[in-house]
Amino acid sequence: KRLNDSYGHATGDVVLREVAGAIVATIRTDDTPARFGGEEFVVLLRRAGTDIAVEVAERIRAAVAELHLDEHGVAERVTVSVGAAVADARGLTVSDLVERADAALYAAKRRGRDQVVVG
Q1: Exposed/middle/buried for 94, CB within 10 Å: 0-12, 13-18, 19+?
Q2: What is the per-residue pLDDT across 87-119, written as a single tens digit (0 to 9) for each?
Q3: DSSP secondary-structure letter at 45?
Q4: Which of 110, 108, 112 is nearest to 54 (CA)?
Q5: Phi, psi at 39, each rounded to 5°
Q6: Beta partners for 82?
Q7: Which residues are catalytic?
Q8: pTM of the shown model
Q9: Which residues contact 103 (CB under 8 A, 6 or more apart)?
Q10: What is the DSSP string of 59-90?
């Protein structure tokens, strides 16, 4: 939202595409990325426990932080907050996982952004 307000929606869309590209370049070939809402993304990790989920999330966070967007007129650094949730033996539904990941995302934002939190 801040980028859209500062640089306009067209630049905001370019930044979202750059972030998506960083995500795709960072995840494993078996994983599935998708845009999930206006400025949120989800990555479904196959065969991943908490350690792998955090590793992938940290790679995504670092890749986005390393984006150079000045060629698009954006001088400031772009960061992401990541909320992760892992299916376990409790038989969580997809909705449960999304809810847990979303809560973890907001926890990451409350804690100062640009970090990974597992829910």
Answers
A1: exposed
A2: 876 778 889 999 999 999 999 999 999 999 998
A3: P
A4: 108
A5: -130, 25
A6: 116
A7: 39
A8: 0.89
A9: 83, 119
A10: HHHHHHHT---GGGT--SPP---EEE----TT
The answer to whether 117 touches 111, Cβ cutoff 8 Å, is yes
pLDDT tens-place string over residues 8-37: 889 989 999 999 999 999 999 999 999 988
Question: Could you give the angle at which helices 9-26 and 50-65 cross, rounded to 10 degrees?
Answer: 140
What is the residue whose two structure tokens read 């500062």?
6
Quickly tell me which residue has 């426990």 as its tokens. Answer: 49
pLDDT digits (tens, 9 = 90+) for 36-82: 888 899 999 988 899 999 999 999 999 999 999 998 889 888 999 99
Pair 42, 36: CB distance under 8 Å: yes
What SS3 state is found at 32?
strand
DSSP-derived 3-state class of residue 118: strand
